[in-house]
Design brief:
Rossmann fold; five-stranded parallel beta sheet
């Protein structure tokens, strides 16, 4: 059903809920995973235009992606990684389309209307700009599983 799943990772505790859920789904369906993190700091957003060196944050994000991927590969899953730069909703949609993903998996923080108004909702922006199905997993509050870290 889903051959390639883009897993949008934030490098936050929300990933601790998302990763095990999607890993189980991928095992059941025989899906390939593409772990994506969008670096969106000043250096990332201006990286190409100003020909900047990779920032410490970008290096840490890349190492994080590789660490999660290695743990998933250790369980027998097929996993690719991609660190993209720019606006998270835009880059998630572009990467999913360019890599022929047929499902986008994301974690939700459970903001209420007021929180989404002030903070914006990456999920909302992604869902309005893609025809690819989206699976949203509600991030657990409090303690988390140690998988992604």
């Amino acid at each position: 059903m889903y051959q390639k799943i883009l897993v949008a990772l934030e490098n936050t505790r929300a990933d601790d809920t998302l990763v095990p859920h999607i890993a189980d789904l991928a095992r059941r369906l025989g899906s390939e995973l593409l772990l994506v993190h969008v670096a969106d700091g000043w250096a990332a957003r201006n990286f190409d235009q100003l020909k900047l060196a990779e920032s410490t944050e970008m290096k840490e994000d890349r190492a994080y992606l590789e660490g999660v991927a290695a743990r998933l590969r250790g369980t027998g899953l097929s996993v690719g990684v991609e660190l993209v730069l720019g606006n998270p909703p835009t880059e998630i949609v572009k990467t999913a389309a360019a890599r022929n993903c047929d499902l986008i998996a994301m974690a939700s923080h459970g903001h209420k209307l007021l929180g989404d108004f002030f903070l914006g909702s990456t999920i909302d922006k992604v869902r309005h700009n893609t025809v690819i199905p989206i699976l949203v997993v509600r991030a657990a509050s409090g303690t988390s599983t140690p998988f992604a870290r």
